[in-house]
Amino acid sequence: MREYLSMAKKIAERILREKDVLVVSHIDADGITSAGIASKALENANIKHEIMFLKQLDTGSLKIIRDKNPSLVWFTDLGSGMAHEMHGLSSVITDHHSPSNMILNVPKEMRKTLTEFFDELNKNEILQLNPHFYGKDGGVDISGAGLTYLVAREMGQKNVYLSQYAIVGAIGDMQDYSFLKLTGTNRYILKEAEEFGLINTLVDARFFGRETRPIHKMLEYASDPIIPGITGDESGALNFLNSLNISLKEGEKWRRWVDLTKEEKRKILSQIAINLLKMGYGSTLVSRLIGEVYILPNEMEGSYLRDAKEFATLLNACGRYGNANVGLEIVRGDRGENLKKAVNLLLRHRKVLVDGIDYLRDIGIIKLDDIQYFNAGSHIPDTVVGTIAAMALSSEIADANLPIIGFVENENGMIKVSGRASRNLVNSGLDLSKLISKAAVSVGGYGGGHNIAAGASIPRGTEEKFLEIMIQQLRELKKTGKN
Questions:
Q1: In sequence order, which residues have a C-beta less than 8 Å from that of residue 296 and are 6 or more positions away?
Q2: How far apart, in whole angstroms, are the C-alpha atoms of residue 267 and residue 447?
């Protein structure tokens, strides 16, 4: 933690010397919260700034950034993978994705720390705060929003209120997925947010929609875990609740999970657990029913912003449909017109996800010995293919024992690749970021991400070759006993 804070302070000092800054961030929930945290910290320091959102950072977007001739660029939730292309561009980076291979491949005996090496390489033009430099897993230890918050915190103590958005960003990045709670450096930020009354941590059902959905709808759309006979079946969810004598309405109003008594919650969760065990799903799946949930007590009860998971999903919907700035304004404090726009985008997002899963059911997932994949062409938007791949992996549609790859067409005439893996595979030595990056480069593309979730962009027509290289790498891992 001391190393994190030391670099965060260096970056903060660098930023505070500027009169204007260009913030460049990713379009997902983690990227939007990162941009919002950076924006408020800069505003509080009276520093003029502009925000630019990107689906991905590549040489083309770097050229656009250079043409703006900014005095300083603050890359949030992206940048580390392209840092080797930033020579001459005065930049700071708060990113948790895998850094450029050229940095990580430098033998340890050649430098004291990776950050010192990178500073020297770029003549102090670039400062990076990245957990991988300290041997931490960027998919679990801290998100882009968390790293950006650590810098904001060093820019002024009053920025501590931004810690709540760092938690939203971490949840949006699914950093609680593996352990059913936030861990590592996220825990440090969570504790700070709790101390200032910005986050309440509860142990409860982890279902999405606890604050906003009628109980039967919450269960109908449950995906982690999938509940046989209930997930995807409204009548099944209604019949299940009726069999337990759970009142669905209070007057004319549908009851939500947060409206239930402790006894009603216990009854529902106990019966779901019994049903899962009877059907042979095992204790691991049952254990995913309960975990930590994070509440923003200063947000209106029953709103989409009260529960960190729902807040993050709302922001994801903004970014995935070309309205990241709408989400940015919500993080910055707007609870009026932009919130209304975001809710409409969320409703659209839900429909796209349902349609995408239905399409996967229709075409099926192709299962090979070492990998499984689907090619959705233009039937699934490139902005949600990763989410749909993750949903498929946690359902009966796909095999949780194999990594899954999704191919779709993107607007640039390239093929967007999204890969997802289970935590069990990652714990056994699988690193999707490395595998996908190598396969993408081999076919003339580029990629990166995390060990559990990664993506790439490759030329059209190279999908088969890409899969061959992925399979070859997976088989080599098997030989070494790492997977």
A1: 164, 168, 198, 199, 200, 305, 306, 307, 308, 311
A2: 46
